[in-house]
Amino acid sequence: MRPFMRAVVLDDVGDSSTLRPRMLPVPEPPRGWVRVQVRAAGVQGSDLYPLRERADGGRVPFVPGIEAVGVVETSASERFGAGEQVAVVLGGTRRTFGGGYAQYMVVPDSAVTAFRSGLPWSVLGAVPETLQTAYGSLSVGIGLQAGQSLLIRGGTSALGYVATALAVDRGATVLATTRRADRLGDLARRGVHVPLVDNGKVAEQVRSMMPDGVDAALELVGTGTLRDTLDATRMQGTVCITRMLSGQRAVEGFRPVDYLPRGVRLTAYNGAAPDLPAAVLQRHLDMIADGRIDRGPVMTYPLDQASRAHDDIEHGRVFGKAVLIVDHDPDRVTARTESSSYDRTACEGDGR
User: Fold this and answer.
1) What is the pLDDT of residue 341?
2) Number of folded domains in the chain?
3) Which pTM was predicted?
4) DSSP state of 245
5) pLDDT value, residue 92
6) Which residues contact 117 (CB under 8 A, 6 or more apart)?
7) Residue 226 falls inside a structural domain
8) Tens of pLDDT along 29-48?
9) What HEC string does 201-234 produce?
10) Shared-domain flag, residues 115 and 146
11) What is the CATH number of the domain that holds 33?
């Protein structure tokens, strides 16, 4: 008799209510793939997109979740063996096979990175995709060097926190924005050299301190603030747009010659697991473990409350990263689901 597992399935486009718990057969890994016992799965803003539109081929129903951490249970790959701790980042393949909102997932070994850590699964689950995106944005999208200045537009998002840690570790001077003045201290505690309140005119604030503008900028809010971010960047500087936290994803009537400031480069980043070297992941986890960097705020939810996590992200109730905890004991899952709670008051805001 084929074993079954608990998973969360997106039945159709709509809203978070279309995410429903279900029992599914445990998948078998083909050659070159591994089956991962999922212990935690990060919830991304990009996980919301399939709820709104038939993107990436539009196949429904399917199991969402573009990142997860866990243990290799069964391997049909020469690269990984059973029992290894691994991180999975699916990137653009998230709709071609089942994702991380499940007790088990099968993935190609190219989407898997091994690590060793004693950190809790709730902490580990917040790391892979965010770290990969931050590292790729700074390395591929910008090419950030020591001694340069970097503006992060959307500094109190989970991605903003990780990008700050990486940039500071590289020796860059970091400016970062938040829309709330009461979060300036939080930015400073996490290593931001110049915290800024985003009043819509960040370029004016930046150029009052740096008349030539910053060397580089990471745009996480979206296209609504992109032009102002470009205006804050010096000639021959680079702006990389990576996230659209505001939900605004297009520039209406985009005409490059009129839109882009003279000599400022605009790039975009959207990568996958191969962009995150294993050594970078291991170093980041080790730095969290020994306190050299802050792990960042994490809000956890039982797997069966994936729809609640999505709703909280969409309505600005998540501060930092949302993570689904995948329990493999049905009795414990029921108890934790019934008693699950978190401080909504402390988590108001939209990460910007």
Assistant:
1) 31
2) 2
3) 0.85
4) T
5) 53
6) 85, 124, 285, 286, 289
7) yes
8) 999 999 999 999 999 766 65
9) CHHHHHHHHCCCCEEEEEECCCHHHHHHHHHCEE
10) no
11) 3.90.180.10
